[in-house]
Specification:
single chain; 199 residues; mainly alpha; globular
Length: 199
């Protein structure tokens, strides 16, 4: 139980920080659009990465040192582009939760965007593959329990974020609130991209 709890607490703490992926899940939850596919994409992706980390991805990164820079620069480019889209939405305004004002986004582009925000983000590799993977070595013989705890935290967090966003729907019924959210998302994307490029 100690290993399971440690894995859960570590994973939950890492996911809790606001980032591109979390902002996207929050947005989909507020719109009530494709929430289940989005949270499943995030949670299952995390489960795959955590499993790879616990089973020794760090070894591959040591053998192929170009992996981390490739993810860093590719991820930064994607975040800059997505940040531009968010700033454009904030500038144009007119967004709200009224379903009659807009057609719902198609499922496939939504899922592809979610997957891109997940798999093109270098931080997710550092957190899941490197950090969780390296800490799991402290639980020799209990790695399975540690990994289950870490994966469980991901599912709990993303489902809570995606479906719990409905509690904020009253606030986001106003277009001005969406402009603020879009601006914050854009700043978040560009801030993460800057950290990737400067560190």
């Amino acid at each position: 139980m100690s290993a399971l709890y440690s894995g859960f607490a570590l994973s939950f703490g890492l996911i809790l920080a606001i980032g591109a992926q979390n902002a996207f899940v929050l947005r989909q939850g507020l719109r009530n659009e494709h929430v289940l596919p989005v949270v499943l994409c995030c949670a299952v992706s995390d489960a795959i990465l955590i499993t790879l980390g616990v089973t020794g991805f760090g070894f591959l990164a040591e053998r192929w040192p170009w992996l981390i820079p490739a993810f860093r620069y590719g991820g930064a480019a994607f975040l800059i582009f997505y940040g531009l889209i968010s700033f454009r939405a904030a500038f144009r305004g007119g967004d709200s939760l009224e379903a009659a004002q807009r057609a719902p986004a198609a499922l496939m582009p939504t899922v592809l965007t979610c997957l891109a925000l997940t798999w093109l983000n270098p931080h997710v590799y550092l957190d899941t593959l490197m950090l969780i993977g390296s800490i799991s070595t402290q639980f020799e013989g209990e790695k399975l329990a540690f990994g289950i705890g870490a994966v469980s935290a991901s599912f709990v967090f993303f489902f809570a974020l995606g479906y719990g966003a409905s509690l904020l729907r009253g606030f986001f019924a106003k277009p001005a609130a969406w402009r603020i959210l879009d601006a914050l998302v854009g700043l978040t994307m560009w801030g993460i991209a800057a950290k990737l490029l400067l560190n």
